[in-house]
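so im writing up the methods section and need the Cytochrome c homolog record in one place, dumping it here so i stop losing it
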Amino acid sequence: MELNKIAASILLSGLIIMIVSNVVDMLYSPEEYKIEHQTIVAAGSNEFQQKIEQVALDIGALMQNASFEKGKSAAKKCIACHSFEKGGMNKVGPNLWNIVGNKKAHLGNSFNYSKAARDRGGKWGYEELFAFLKNPKAYIKGTRMAFAGISNPQEIADLVSYLHQLSDSPVALPK
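--- predicted struct ---
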């Protein structure tokens, strides 16, 4: 008999909660949460889109205003995976000494680059570094680099300014 009373009270409580919930929803019907968005239709490849974005940026002007000290501070984001000293060891990522102007996958067999990074070819010029640091996974599809990228162009310029100085003979700045 006691067990029936307990079961009935539990069922009645659940029923009351459901009824009250439905009544409250009818009285105070919330408006649907709407997310405003724009659909962007890409005409062409992502690489083409990145080239358009690079044209919009005046990399020369950004580099002229870049701060070595701010770049050194920005490089702290990279220190967990990269070393910056001449002859420094590779970590999860390759050593970045003398990266500006050097060929991509510049350490050859002394670092285990992803196939995508090895096959990319070319040199790490200023435009390439800007595109890569903005969105590594878009610039080199298949890269193992987990970094999401830097959205602020001036912060990228500061970081590239720092990387530019990490060389025995730094490459000339863009004009």
